Amino acid sequence: xxxxxxxxxxxxEEHDEAAQALFDDLIAKDSRIEPRDWMPEAYRKTLIRQISxxxxxxxxxxxxxxxxxxxAPSLKRxxxxxxxxxxxxxxxxxxxxxxxxxxxxxxxMMQQLIDGKARYSSIFNYTTPTWADMGAIGWLxxxxxxxxxxPLCRASYGPYGRAMVRICKExxxxxxxxxxILLELMQGSEAQREMAQDAVNRWYWPSxxxxxxxxxxxxxxxxxxAWNIKRFSNDELRQRFVGMLVPQAEVLGxxxxxxxxxxxxxxxxYDMSEIDWTEFNExxxxxxxxxxxxxxxxxxxxxxxxxxxxxxAEYARKQAEREKAVA
Length: 327
Ligand SMILES: [Fe+2]
Ligand SMILES: [Fe+2]
Prior knowledge:
This protein has helices spanning 9-28, 41-60, 62-66, 75-100, 106-114, 132-149, 158-186, 190-209, 221-226, 234-252, 277-287, 291-304, 306-326, and strands at residues 262-264, 269-271. Strands 1-2 form a two-stranded antiparallel ribbon. It is an all-alpha fold. One fe (ii) ion (FE2) binds at residues 58, 88, 91, 167, 171.
């Protein structure tokens, strides 16, 4: 619903009020908002921020694992890891496309990332010193991503929700391949078991931080929930994730590195230690183990890809010219 350009201020206000009522009605019915629909500016901005951050996370998230493609212990592992990293590139591209339907250009988003102005998930600023990190990332990081993202398949904004459906299918494959890497290591030598446990120790807390700050320190959550973008609070999702991990850790034979982790019958939830948010904030502020390295690599990749963008633009130009000549 778009306001005709020649409307007076008064009738434009009237138009916006009617459009807002229609928007509110769609949200109340748990229906979908599509790119052609009128939407409040704050809703559009929130979505652009969330979807572009999500896209950047997928793209930066390729780095910690691509680091291991050449060193994967077998041809089979190499093929699986390559497919997984390639999936993450695809996720980034679906999500950039979804954000573009909200009126932001892909180049603008890319530039924000390259300039270090855009956020992406802090988790990708940790390093991957051992092969077991590939297992721990798949099991814990992709696992946390699934918990976060399955409810997003029902996000009120159509293009985002639809992108998430496809992404979640691939994320569950990622989680299983990570679990399977750890399982194989846990059934191996003492050194392999130690390597797997060490990776779980390093990734467990950062993966819990992926759900964001505690509910009482998450000011934007309530609005996102009212708009049906978010369906569960950060703490609810974190609980759900830990509940999923505990039985899987038992099958693996790994210990989750929290001495206070215990089922609380009364609350019907897990008790756990306090999360070290100072660490989270340090990484968020750019002082994590690999923040500078991740951005440097992204800039390099962007520069290396300049000729591809130029060639694609030139090809598109020639195609358009040819079509014009035929018409
Ligand atoms: Fe992904
Ligand atoms: Fe993934």
